[in-house]
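Problem: given the chain below (343 residues), write out its structure.
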Amino acid sequence: MSSNTVKLLDLLIRKRWVGGSTPSTGTMSHICRQPLLAESPQRTHMQRRVKPFRYEWQISLASRICLGYKDWERDFMRRPDHLPDFTDPPLDEVVLGVQFAPVQGYTSVHSMKVWDLFKAEFSKVQEHPVLEPQFETFGGTNVQAGPRIHVGTAPVGSRLWFLSEDENHLVQFQPDRFITNWRRQPNSQPYPRFEGLAEAFEVNLEKLARHIESDFGYQMDINQAEVAYINIIPVESFSEAGEWFEVWNGGAFEVEALNASFNEVVKGDDGKPFARLNHQIQSVFTADRKQRAYRLSLTFKGKPAGSDIGSAMAFLSTGRDAIVTHFGEVTTAEAQKRWGRVQ
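Solution.
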């Protein structure tokens, strides 16, 4: 299946087909014969309260695709109009990642072939300890900090980092995980926006999926996905939290350090939870250790609707919408004015 067809199916997979069934084929002619209902199985209350929501525009775009619209891919990757936007956001890092069933038969001997897939863009290599398998779970008595369970055998070998020459971008691989990071560096490279990162991530994930299917006879089975935005907000004093965050009501006392975390369980229209949105505010110092700062991290993690790449990308898109919307809700109007909010 071509990358363009995958993106089209990704665009349509979140709609209900008449009769509740999903088409068994991905051909353009079959898709265009299917009437769509204007509702999304995983349209959450966070998305419903933002108008107009992206799915309405997606259905319109799907209709234009079927009528022969040529620039659908460009429009699909554009930034949704309803999200807050800033000319100078405090964004320091963006993370997109998926977890999948471990590749059976993979050993560190195969790592050179994996690097060969990405070497043209990521010329530097580092080794790091593997990440343990993690699953977002719901229910039970422990509701603190997102309960997780570990299942199966931990992946062997190391986690490989493939870095771009300027180190703004990196790709992480281990036998059950694929992650991409954009990190702000002292150089002047601009943030490529989520749309650019997501497109590159999908291309690289498809490249990896083809490789492990060819070499190991393994079809990628994605079981978790996550998107995270990490913001660094320089401040003069940690007592200024009320100037930056709506969740802090201030107080006439000197704050030495601040560490606050809370989660929101995200449910689909069927009332079942499928993701967790974690908010974390920490008092830190800037990278050069010269100034106090707040680190605001927003992380959306959970299980996509399906185990394929298209479902994972739809999940990441939903997560980005939730994160950016919540960023606009937990930070103050005055702070957003400083960051140049334009909508």
